[in-house]
Amino acid sequence: MILKHFTELQEFLLEPRNIVIIGHRNPDGDAIGSTLGLKHYLDKKGHTTQVLVPNEYPDFLHWIPGSETVKRFDRQNNQSVKALVKSDIVFLLDFNALHRVGTDMQRTLEEYENDFALIDHHQQPDDFMYMYSDTSMSSTCQMVYNFIEMMGDVALIDKNIATCLYTGIMTDTGSFRFRSTTSTTHRIIADLIDKGAENDRIHSNVHDANSYNRLLLLGQALSNMKVLPTYKTAFITLSEEEKRRFHYEKGDTEGVVNYALSLKGIVFAAIFIEDEEQSIVKISFRSKGTFSVNQFARKYFNGGGHDNAAGGKSDDTMENTIAKFKSLLPTYKQQLESSYEA
Ligand code: 5GP
Ligand code: MN
């Protein structure tokens, strides 16, 4: 755990400040939940805040309280830059390095003149003036709860804040099932329910928001799945053509990789998704047990993340990317075999 200059940050926040709060590119439930949860809290403390995200986020996150105030750097560029220029500090939430916001926004942030405050649970964070980094945490939302607690303000957590934080903890823990879910996570969740988070409604808002086409795309993904029993590995592909056929929208492929990991005996799962716009193949990796997909993604696919959930990308074709992936597996045969000794 790294906690850097927390007292100084606390003092800095004694006066009303202009604050920008940023989540990572392709924001997920934890990114949106943590940025908006922090926003509601800082607003209550008398600050002026603006949440910025690099690009669009899935429909099933748009119901989150405060979502209508979020600005997109790619679409609302002038307003975003203006907010940055007049801000006294920028909070970076749910990512560990500036490149995670994408090239354009990264360039702007690199010229930022005031200080950054990081709250994040990803491995190997870059250095910023103020830092709260803890890779053992289930989610950044859990850390925002802790942050508010360290500020002595748990009593300020209201229904809006509780709803935001509950959402991110829920999505980042796969509904409280991943190893990162501790008894403390559950205690915090219990407190958030006490403070007004309507758990049944939150689950339903996020998980029962499928479009018909999204389910058909899932069907296609599942029929594309390949299993490599020798390496306890399964992977899924989705081509640009398949995405088009089922009217792909942002967020439609979220969680699909977990179906590959749900196969009995599988400890390593991946999904490869063609992205014509960026001319890359975007990859998600998942594992069970000790096999670190963070290291794997970092070493071979220009990515990173957590030990059991990471992402990366390839500039090569789908075919070559899959060939490269398969060629790497023999090296890890032993690690994969012993990854999950149940
Ligand atoms: P997902 O596969 O759900 O997109 O991401 C899984 C985890 O890996 C998340 O914590 C996400 O922030 C991280 N991640 C996804 N893609 C990348 C990437 O390209 N680079 C890095 N460093 N992390 C990533
Ligand atoms: Mn997260």
UniProtKB/TrEMBL annotation:
SUPFAM superfamilies cross-referenced by the UniProt entry: DHH phosphoesterases (SSF64182)
Domain of life, source organism: Bacteria
Pfam assignment, any one: DHHA1
Ranges for domain DDH: 18-169
Record key words, sorted: Hydrolase
Annotated EC: 3.1.3.7
Enzyme class: hydrolase
Domain DHHA1 intervals: 247-326
GO MF, any single term: 3'(2'),5'-bisphosphate nucleotidase activity
Keyword Transport in annotation: no
Name of the protein this chain belongs to: Bifunctional oligoribonuclease/PAP phosphatase NrnA
Species this chain originates from: Tenacibaculum tangerinum
